[in-house]
Specification:
Layout: E1 5-8, H1 10-16, H2 21-33, E2 37-41, H3 42-46, H4 57-70, E3 75-78, H5 98-117, H6 124-136, E4 142-145, H7 148-158, E5 172-175, H8 180-193
Parallel strand pairs: 1-2, 1-4, 2-3, 4-5
């Protein structure tokens, strides 16, 4: 039996890798005790292609995943819930339905609008990756993100698509603290409060 299922965005993965000492030990024991699972998709690894300013991004993410594994924290790579041309690896995405496509499209628009409002300029491909990652969180108990625009966009969009609940478990989205220790405490707090 699998316990609580967490889906992590890219930065949450990186922050989690910063755990060490007693915080790391407590986190591992509690996750194992509760048979909980941490997941992500290949998209977080592949985002490096989209960041011209960070040529070593893919190596950085792969290093984080290896480091987490060496620390005893297993991150399961899952197939995205939606195939998006130019983002999803061929053979790794599922063909979504019309409603899932609408959610993806609206998430892209909302994230882009939020980024512009904040005076930041993510590329259209980065925004498409964010939307694909968010849609891939469907089916989990919690979606953990450190991205404020992704968080607010998800909250805004998902409430309009309650029918998705027939096809997927709708995760509760959590805006995570940008610290390894605080992120771990948030996740463990969710374990305690989850039935």
């Amino acid at each position: 039996m699998v316990g609580v299922r967490f889906f992590l965005d890219t930065n949450a993965l990186m922050y989690l890798d910063g755990l060490k000492g007693s915080d790391l030990q407590i986190f591992k024991v509690q996750m194992e005790k509760n048979k909980s699972k941490l997941s992500t998709t290949h998209i977080q690894i592949d985002e490096w292609k989209l960041r011209e300013e960070e040529q070593d991004y893919r190596r950085k993410i792969e290093k984080v995943l290896t480091s987490l594994k060496n620390k005893g924290i297993v991150i399961e790579l899952e197939t995205p819930n939606l195939f998006v041309v130019g983002i999803t690896r061929i053979g790794f995405g599922r063909i979504g339905n019309e409603e899932l496509g609408k959610v993806y499209d609206e998430l892209r628009k909302e994230v882009e609008k939020c980024e512009k409002t904040k005076g930041r300029s993510k590329t259209p491909l980065n925004i498409a990756c964010d939307a694909t990652i968010a849609v891939s969180s469907l089916g989990h108990d919690f979606f953990i993100t450190t991205d404020e625009c992704l968080f607010t966009s998800w909250v805004s969009v998902i409430c309009r698509y309650t029918m998705l609940g027939r096809q997927f478990k709708i995760p509760k989205i959590i805006y995570a603290r940008r610290s390894p220790e605080l992120l771990a405490k948030q996740i463990l707090g969710l374990l305690i409060g989850h039935p």
